[in-house]
Amino acid sequence: MDQERFDRLTRQFGRSSRRSVLGGAAKAGAALVAAWLGFGTHPADARQCRDYGCTCNGGIYRSCRSGLVCCPYSPGVPGGLGQCLTEDECYGPQCINSGEACAPYCGWGTGCPDCCSGYCGDFGVCDTPRCTGAGCACSTGTYLPCDFGLTCCPLQPGLLGGPGVCAPEGSC
Questions:
Q1: SS3 126
Q2: In Å, what is the CA distance from 153 to each residue of 128, 134, 144?
Q3: Average pLDDT, whole number, for the chain?
Q4: Contact between 137 and 131 (Cβ < 8 Å)
Q5: What 3-state DSSP class applies to 56?
Q6: pLDDT by residue (tens digit) across 68-122?
């Protein structure tokens, strides 16, 4: 840029009023925000994406299609940007993991729909149901390892506390 052109630009800038400079700065700021949010750079259909994986706004009701939630990128920012995902992907599984306390209405040693395994163990924690019927593995020398009418027959006779199998009483 030559010196004469530079002088002309500085004179024009010097003649501008503060209001026009501030107005231009405000317009430029609004344009930057609009570009950052994606307005004016994408077709209207792309801004309306509500399907799995689309960008969404957590502050807008139904910003994702039915069955999906707007999972926030920054959970501490109310109304912030997020991504349309399933509830399990966003919040984790909606069941109680093994080793954690069963729901209060579940009986101990019974089925529990809130446990991921579907079973509430003998001590009130979600657990995998133990096999206690005929043919199930058991440990000899333990208290009631098999269902009523079955006994734990050792796989190696004479080895107390060793592995066994549940079988009808008297069949060992």
A1: strand
A2: 23, 11, 12
A3: 77
A4: yes
A5: strand
A6: 989 888 777 777 888 999 887 887 767 888 888 888 888 888 888 888 888 888 8
Q: Which of 132, 110, 136 is nearest to 121 (CA)?
A: 110
Which residue, among 105, 136, 132, 110, has the nearest Cα to 123 in the 3D structure? 110
Instruction: Give whole-number Cα distances, 69 to 93, 96, 135, in Å.
Output: 14, 21, 46
- Identity (one letter) of the amino acid at 81? L
Q: 102 near 134, Cβ under 8 Å?
A: no
Write down the residue that tokens 């109310």 correspond to. 78
The pTM assigned to this predicted structure is: 0.33
Copy the structure tokens of residue 59.
Answer: 């502050």
How crowded is residue 165: how many other Cβ atoms within 10 Å of its Cβ?
Answer: 18
Between CA 145 and CA 133 the distance in angstroms is 9
Average pLDDT over residues 6-23: 61
